[in-house]
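User: Predict the structure for this protein chain, please.
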Amino acid sequence: MVTVRTEMDKNRYIQILNTPHLIQQEEITELKKVIDEFPYFQSARSLYLKALNNQKSFKYNNELKTTAAYTIDRTVLFNFITSTIFTEETSTKEATLHQQIAEEIQQEEPQEVLDIKEELSLGKPLSFTQNESHSFNQWLQLSVKKPIIRTSEKPKTEDKISIIEKFIQNSPKISRVKKGAISEVKVHKNEQPTLLMTETLAKVYLEQKKYGNAIKAYEILSLKYPEKSGFFADQIKRIQILQNSK
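Assistant: Here is the predicted structure, written as C-alpha cells:
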C-alpha cells in the first residue's frame, strides 16, 4: 500500500481545529490528503467538510454523504453540521472560484436550464437546521455511499490519536462517538408528513433529481405557508422546465 505523505504538522492542525473558519485553500488540499490516507480520522473529515461549506463548494453535498458513510453515529454528524461553529458565515475568494468551476462543468447545458438551476440553487451546499433530522436522513438514504465497515487497521502514530481526543474534548457540539451499529438521526414516528415537510427537504429532492417529489413538496409547503405560495408556485414552474428539458 502506498502511503500518502502530507506537509501538515500537528501544531498547524491543532491551530486550524481552533479556528476552522480561517482554513485556507492550501490547508484544504492538505486535509484532503490526510483523509485519503486516514479515512477514519473523524476530526479531519469534519474540518474538510467545514472548509467546503465555507467555500459554498459544489463538492460539499457529495462529501457530506461520504462523511456519513464513515460515521458510526450520524447524530454526531448532524449535531455538528447544524451547530453555530459549522454554520458560521465565512466570506472567501475560494467560494467564488468554486462557483466558477461549477459553471464551467455545466457550460454545455442550454442557457435556460443553467438559469433555472441557478434560480433553484442547485449544486449549492444543503443547509439543515436542528429540527430537520428527517430531511438529513432523506439526503443520506438515497446515497450510493454505503456504510463502511472499518478494518482492523491501527492508527499509525500516537500523535493522531491525541489530536482526535483533543478535538472531541474541546468541541462542545460534537460528542464522543458511541460504540455499536451505524445509526440514523432519530425522527419522531408520530410526526405527520406535512409537519416534516420543509424547504430543505424540497431542495434535497431537487438535488436527488426526484422532481415529482420536489413538486409535491412545494405543493404541501404552499398549503403550509400560504404567504409564500407565489414563491413556491414559481419553484414548481422551474422544476417543470427542468423535467421537460430531459
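Residues 1-5, 93-106, 171-177 have pLDDT under 50 and may be disordered.
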